[in-house]
Structure formats: structure tokens, C-alpha cells
Design a protein that fits this description.
Length: 212
């Protein structure tokens, strides 16, 4: 039942995001298709997955003030973060190697629907790992790193979004970097959650997201 409850919350978040950003999503569709046409690429043909990606781009625009890649939170490295603006500077290399960009927003021009579906399943496996979640305490450290970007997959923000749909009450989060703390502070503000953080005597960043 816990899994079903989390799934229902995910669909609820999708509907809320679509309604909130419905006008901005039309603008996103225009630039995405223009970019794809210029590069000879194909846009993800699966309507719900494609819409979700656009919603996440708009959420990131609100969180970070820029068109941040849906798959990776800002790192705090200005040069790397500029490369992560969607469409990111890593997309063409990803497409050459795997047939789609990491987020599966763009694919080769000749990639069929089945190829996109397989890439989506791979992405979902990456971003829905078994979380290091004990009660209401989430340790986001130790995730594998993307070889091109050198960033964890999934990062702390993506793990927290998943955990918030799985637990009740406050969520305590362990993160690796001070910048990840700042990213979670932005997320808490956007979702109306209380926020506090501390650097423990063990040198660990501990964030508490409070449901009020």
C-alpha cells in the first residue's frame, strides 16, 4: 500500500504541475521542437513523459532562476552549471552514445518509439533506486556518479522528492555538500516546508524539512 500511495502522490504532483505551468509548457514545446529540428533530432513522442520533463524544467526555472536540466540539480560550480542549462552541453555526446540525451527529452532522428521507451525505463531505474531511508531519516550520499558530468544519480534533490512521497511527518536529510543544502532550502520554500540545517561535529550536513 505504501508503494501505491507514493504512486498516487506522483500522479497528483503531475496534475498540479501541469495546471500550474500549462501556459509556460506551450512556450517550452516551441523551443524544444525548434532545437530538435535544427539538430536533426526527434523529441520524445510519449506525451506524459514529455510533459513531465517540461514540468520539471519549469519547476527548476522557479527554483533556480534558469532553465536547469531536469535530471541534475545545480552543482555550485558555475562553469559546470552553465553546461547544465537545457538543452545541456552533454546532450549530443549522450545521444551519440546511447540514442537519447540523459533525460530522454531528445533522441536520434531515426530513433523509434520503442527506443525511447527503453531509454525511459533505464532512466526510471536510475532515478528510483532503493533509498537509504531509515524511518524519516534519508542519507543521500554514496550514489553512483554520471561519467560525463561527475554528479550523483540521483542527486539529493531528486531523492528528497521521492522520499517526501514515501514518509509522513518531518524528513531529516544527510547531504554531501553545502550547495546541496542550499538546493534543498529552495525546494522547501517552494513546497511550503519548514527548513533548518546544521553542520554536525562529524562534518555532516544535516537538513530537516518540516511539514507544518
Amino acid at each position: 500500500m505504501a508503494g501505491l500511495g507514493a504512486t498516487i502522490k506522483m500522479y497528483r504532483d503531475f496534475v498540479r504541475g501541469w495546471w500550474k505551468y500549462r501556459k509556460r509548457l506551450q512556450h517550452d514545446d516551441a523551443w524544444i521542437r525548434k532545437y530538435a529540428a535544427a539538430k536533426g533530432l526527434r523529441v520524445n513522442p510519449h506525451r506524459m513523459f514529455y510533459t513531465n520533463l517540461k514540468i520539471w524544467i519549469e519547476e527548476n526555472r522557479d527554483l533556480y532562476g534558469r532553465q536547469q536540466c531536469p535530471c541534475f540539480e545545480p552543482s555550485g560550480d558555475p562553469e559546470l552549471d552553465r553546461k547544465l542549462l537545457c538543452p545541456c552541453k552533454f546532450a549530443e555526446a549522450d545521444i551519440q552514445a546511447h540514442g537519447t540525451c540523459h533525460c530522454v527529452l531528445f533522441g536520434r532522428g531515426d530513433l523509434d518509439d520503442r527506443g525511447f521507451a527503453l531509454a525511459e525505463k533505464n532512466l526510471q531505474r536510475e532515478y528510483r533506486p532503493k533509498l537509504n531511508l531509515s524511518g524519516n531519516r534519508l542519507d543521500t550520499r554514496g550514489m553512483p556518479k554520471d561519467p560525463r558530468r561527475g554528479l550523483p544519480v540521483p542527486d539529493a534533490t531528486h531523492q528528497v522528492k521521492q522520499a517526501l512521497n514515501m514518509v509522513k511527518g518531518d524528513l531529516v536529510v544527510i547531504v554531501e555538500t553545502e550547495h546541496a543544502v542550499e538546493n534543498l532550502k529552495r525546494l522547501a520554500h517552494a513546497r511550503g516546508l519548514g527548513f533548518s540545517s546544521q553542520l554536525t561535529s562529524q562534518g555532516i550536513y544535516e537538513v530537516t524539512l518540516q511539514r507544518t
